Amino acid sequence: MHRTTKSAHAALFAVTAFAAATAYASAAPIAYVTSETNGVGIIDLGNMSLEKTISLGKDGPRGLSLTADGKRLLVAAKTGELIAIDTSTGKVVDRVKIGKNPEFVRVHRGYAYVTYEPGESGPPPEALQGGAKPAQQGEKQAGKGHDDDDDANSPPAEIAIVDLKTMKVLRSVKSGHETEGVEFSPDGHEMLVTNEGDDTVSVYQTGTGKLLRTLKLDAGSRPRGIKVSPDGKQYVVTLENTGKFVVLDAASFKPVKTVDTKLGPYGVAFDPTGKHLIVAAARDKTLQVFDAKTYAHVADVPVGQRCWHFSFTPDGSKLLLACGRSNAVYVLDASNYQTVGQIGNLPLAWGIVTSPPSSGSIESAR
């Protein structure tokens, strides 16, 4: 019976994957970029230009993720909602109430996982265009987090689990303080989230949200980005405040290596070839390249300001980096990681994903 069930699940997954691949194959490749003041920018990857912008008014979009078939783009909005956009029309077709300050969104096996912070007393980071600002108003400052009003006495962050068939919140699970990155184990059974406010990584059972274990990292390190290695044997977690990333064994969750980076590492991903690890060191305005096996440093590439998230193009030839304080997406040649262009008119660009899906700091190639 167990084997039959596993075979049935495998067959269903194969059919779903084939249907999604067929849908993607019929559409021209594009990238979606959330702009905290403009909405969602759509980039034509054929000519690397901003095709149009889906206006979301004052919704303030941040995290984003596509459904498996590419028909819906899900966006976290500062209105406390998860917004569903029909990718064929660019129209908002649904809104799901989440809670205060939803930020990171990941779609996995028919569910959307949305982080939010009910403990925050103020609004989410505001779209300020320059000058000094309090830590809770956006970009992290050296030695501080972007929401330093969060403390051990405030309620922890939560993760809303949304059923994509009904577009209803099934449940919310408590996490640590200031939950940031979300990643899934290769077998899909576990979800790992980084909690920068209390320097932990939480491990949950997917679907149920049952807490399996909590990993404590260095005090004050503020873990943010997280990615599983191509072979599924390790996780890489960026530590924003200490300028490092830590490599965790995927079986034991014990640290096996710690590597120095430039200041403020956040977004992290392996390239489509599996040869390099890419880290966005935002405070140093640098994109860093490391060997994916040894984690030896390979190269540093100067980029723009507040570059948090990035994605490779579906064909793997380019890397697109959302640079919020530069109000642009930087375009890099993935063969040598040199900047070959910029796509502007994207004020406070936050996150970026592509259709068809590709490797990046938010999504992973399916």
From TrEMBL:
Spell out the InterPro entries in the cross-references: Host-pathogen_enzymatic-act (IPR051200), N2O_reductase_N (IPR011045), WD40/YVTN_repeat-like_dom_sf (IPR015943), WD40_rpt (IPR001680)
Region annotation (Disordered) ranges: 116-155
UniProt keyword Cell membrane present: no
Signal peptide region: 1-27
What is the organism field in this record?
A: Paraburkholderia edwinii
**What Pfam families does the database record attribute to this sequence?**
Cytochrom_D1
What is the superkingdom listed in this entry's lineage? Bacteria
**Protein's UniProt name:** Beta-propeller fold lactonase family protein
Query: Can you tell me where the transmembrane regions are?
Result: none
Record's keyword terms, sorted: Signal
